Amino acid sequence: MRLSYAYEQMLFHPKWYDWLTILPLLPLSGLYGIGMLVRRKTAKRKRYPVPIVSVGNLIVGGSGKTPFVIALASRYEKVAVISRGYGRKSRGMVEVSRNGKILVDVTQSGDEAMEMAEALPNASVIVSEKRGMAIEKVIAQGAEMIVLDDGFNRVEIEKYEIVLEPAKINNPFPFPAGPYREFAFCKRAADIVAKEGRDFFRKVEYEDLQERMLLVTAISDPERLDAYLPKGVVQKVYLPDHAYFDENELERLMVKCRAKSLLVTGKDAVKMADFKLPLSKMKLKLEIEAAIMQQIDIYKKGYNCEE
Q: What is the pTM of this model?
């Protein structure tokens, strides 16, 4: 866990000594970036009979994709969300929800997919490593629009591309030296590049806050929460992205620091649904510029599967 956190720090918040590791990795980053660029340029894209909108990013880790997907999918009827299902203990294609009815538990869906399913009572959510197979399934079930979660690098699918960009990126290199999944200029392939602080803004709401809270989270780059933490956080516990929690260990830590509740994100809370520990929640929502949603509405309305 320490190595994972140290590596995340190098990717997102490099200190001067991290560059001693970053610089030797640059040749590998160049090769990786070139390989991804060739893949993007040579891919044959399949067009489907319903509009597909992808919400993705160029960097590993969180950039607001999940709340953006929720905000987008909640605008439409007969919409299906397709995700990879990171962190799940299942394999293959799994229906998480159908028309708002939850069909599996979080171990089968993954944390982000369950968070979306719970927040979208009128949508269907499905997870699959093979996105094409999932697309065919939801179309057969009657979906009239598909939102593809984290789909920018699914270059084999014809879709409307939205790329979310953080307000600031401290490390500009591709993996493994930096956080980029492709060269930064590949964002030009997107139909919309939405930048945090310009095109969308984070808004955090709180539930059941206590005077002493233990922050526990399993998200990428957890220090990004610091700007939104309420008063009363007495200790912080960071686990690797998508990790599951041990209820007994969390109870022990609460007693040790005399916390009255666990402060968690929505992504964490879905993995604690059966816990008997008191939870305080941070609920992240996005305020998205109206012009972006209008562009998506235009694309959906004018979609022609034969183009």
A: 0.92
